[in-house]
Design goal:
Number of helices: 10
Radius of gyration: 18 Å
CATH class of the largest domain: Alpha Beta
Structural class: alpha/beta
CATH architecture of the largest domain: Alpha-Beta Complex
CATH topology of the largest domain: 2-enoyl-CoA Hydratase, Chain A, domain 1
Strand content: 15-25%
Largest sheet: 6 strands, mixed
CATH superfamily of the largest domain: 2-enoyl-CoA Hydratase, Chain A, domain 1
Mean pLDDT: 93
Low-confidence stretches: none
Number of domains: 2
Order of helices and strands: EEHEHEEHEEHHEHEHHHH
Number of strands: 9
Distance between the termini: 30 Å
């Protein structure tokens, strides 16, 4: 598929997805949603990719869905959520409505000082439909999530960091380099371990503690049979950095 609303770039083990509708604040429409679904399927088939960085072109991350295209935002979030690789949202400027829900679908969020965050749906007689009512409270707690959703008021980057919505706040000029540093640290880890750890955390949130512990134990057992695990042991004994192959 030839993409018109996103830019897809791969640099070794890191893949960059750029929302590319800067004239409308990178608003999500049906075409962008379809293109995100397609690129995410492509990424999941590429074993070399370990980290996906999601960012916006111009001065915004995403201003939400275009008018009358609310479902497109939900489909876009589901596409990002389907990624089996580690996902990092680089948030510069506004992350509003479905744009914020898109960031919530990522594993890690890093923001610039000029970032802002809002779920304004109730002000328009709606509720978030792209995962906002579910992912936000899991991330920041019930009370703060309800405050953001019920008041439809925006918060700035410092408040987002204080409540745990983002992992770090840096200047706009430093944002991409900071996100790249996070990605470089992550790709030194075992790719199978990253995938299993993500699965254990995400699925475990929907389980009882006992069920979650069983899932963790099953995945822990499986990873003991991998070549990566043996390489990790050898590297530890030989006091060197491991050379993982994802096997």
């Amino acid at each position: 598929m030839q993409y018109k609303t996103i830019i897809h770039e791969k640099k070794e083990q890191i893949c960059y997805i750029t929302l590319n509708r800067p004239k409308v604040g990178n608003a999500i429409n049906a075409q962008m949603s379809r293109e995100l679904a397609d690129v995410c399927r492509t990424i999941n088939q590429d074993e070399e990719i370990m980290v996906v960085i999601l960012k916006g072109a111009g001065g915004a991350f995403s201003s939400g869905s275009e008018s009358q295209e609310w479902e497109a935002g939900g489909d876009a979030s589901r596409a990002i959520d389907s990624l089996e690789r580690v996902t990092i949202a680089a948030i510069d400027g506004a992350a509003l409505g479905e744009g914020l829900e898109l960031a919530l679908a990522c594993d890690i969020r890093i923001a610039s000082e000029r970032a802002s965050f809002c779920l304004p749906h109730t002000a328009y007689g709606l509720i978030p439909g792209g995962g906002g009512t579910q992912r936000l409270p899991r991330l920041v707690g019930k009370g703060k999530a309800l405050e953001m959703i019920l008041t439809a008021e925006p918060i700035d980057a410092d408040e987002a960091y204080r409540i745990g919505l983002v992992s770090k706040v840096v200047s706009a000029e430093e944002l991409l380099s900071e996100v790249n540093e996070w990605a470089k640290r992550i790709i030194t880890c075992g790719p199978i371990a990253l995938r299993y750890a993500k699965e254990a955390v995400n699925k475990g949130l929907d389980f009882t503690l006992e069920q979650g512990l069983r899932l963790e134990a099953d995945l822990y057992f499986l990873i003991q049979t991998t070549e990566d695990r043996m390489e990790g042991i050898r590297a530890f004994r030989e006091k060197r950095l491991p050379q993982f192959k994802g096997e």
